[in-house]
Amino acid sequence: MDALLLVDKPAGITSHDVVSVARRALGEKRIGHAGTLDPFATGLLVLLTGRATRVLPYVEGEPKEYEATIRWGAETDTDDATGSVTREAAGSIPARDALDAAMATLTGRIEQLPPDYSAKQVGGRRAHAAARSGAPLVLAPVPVHVHSWALRAHRESESETDVTIVCGAGTYIRALARDLGRATGSAAHLSALRRTRSGPFDVANATSFADLRAQRATVRSPREAIPSVAEQRVSTEDAARLAHGMRVAATIEGARAALLDGAGALLAIAERSGDDWQPRVVLANE
User: Fold this and answer.
1) Same domain flag for 74 and 95
2) How confident is the model at residue 129 (pLDDT cuts 50, 70, 90)?
3) Is the pLDDT of residue 130 over 70?
4) What residue numbers bound the domain in which 240 lies?
5) Are 37 and 128 found together in one domain?
6) Among the options 2, 8, 38, 179, which is catalytic?
């Protein structure tokens, strides 16, 4: 099965657990993802199946949108609620104006120190593996892009703040929660996280995990995985050429195109070469 599949991941399972269930539900071994979520997080996973996995390098994954809950008063070694407390600042939930000022400093292109428990590598060793062994790696800050923060609720009586964050790929929301605490002179960690958007994809259109497990998943055409790429319909003869990786004539402008058959099925993603399209990814049957 060659398809796009959007899944709403529940908390308490890994992204790879979702992929395993999808393999069984769809009867398809080849499934790839366009970005994982931590086990405690919920929300949107973008999966591609069968030959559509070849499209993954062209899938738009930015910006990403998250709904996050930040808990005040303590930092943890994982920067989220699954870790052990490493520092406390009791009774120091920031005022709204201090919170707004701190969020402003964490907006735009910033340097972010990744969490000790992350997939970052130093010398071929994963940071999370080193942290679990009791010898955390010394990680270097990395550039990330935080487009915006929106404060949804500031519950002082519960020492929690709900925010919506729009950011680029590679941004750790856990680290933003940690750094927001430090920027306000307090301490904080992430207590809940939900991914609501990834590029053009919205969790509102995703299949629930329960429906996936019950084999009631809504699958979409591979064409829907690259909605912003211009399309060109090709003849039966050109479809056969594409299946063999051969060029076809370009009839639309642009540097890249999704080449479709008469029924609208994605045959290839191609790049311009003079007056022709050179296929780079081919889904067409030989």
Assistant:
1) yes
2) low
3) no
4) 229-282
5) no
6) 38
- Let me know whether 157 and 171 are in one domain: yes
Interior angle at CA 252, CA 247 and CA 254, nearest 5: 85
How is the chain split among helix, strand and coil, in percent rounded to 5? 25, 40, 35
Q: In terms of domains, do 73 and 191 share one? A: yes
Provide the number of structural domains found in the chain: 3
Catalytic status, residue 276: no
- Reduced to 3 states, what is the DSSP secondary structure of residue 234? coil
Q: Is 148 exposed, middle or buried (0-12, 13-18, 19+ CB in 10 A)?
A: middle
First CA to last CA distance, the chain: 16
Q: Is the same domain home to 109 and 158?
A: yes
- For the stretch 100-121, what's the b/e string if a residue is b when 16 or more beta carbons lie within 10 angstroms of its beta carbon? eebbeebbeebebebbbbbebe
Distance CA 283, CA 88 (A): 54
pLDDT in tens, 5-35: 999 999 999 999 999 999 999 999 999 999 8
Confidence of residue 219 (pLDDT cuts 50, 70, 90): very high
Question: What are the pLDDT digits (tens) for 54-107?
Answer: 999 999 999 999 999 999 999 999 999 999 999 999 766 899 999 999 999 999
What is the pTM assigned to this prediction? 0.91
Structure tokens at 55: 């499209």
**pLDDT of amino acid 285:** 77
> What six digits make up the tokens of 145?
């892009």
> What CATH number has the domain bearing residue 19?
3.30.2350.10
**H or E, element range at 182:** helix 173-183
Question: 127 pLDDT exceeds 80?
Answer: no
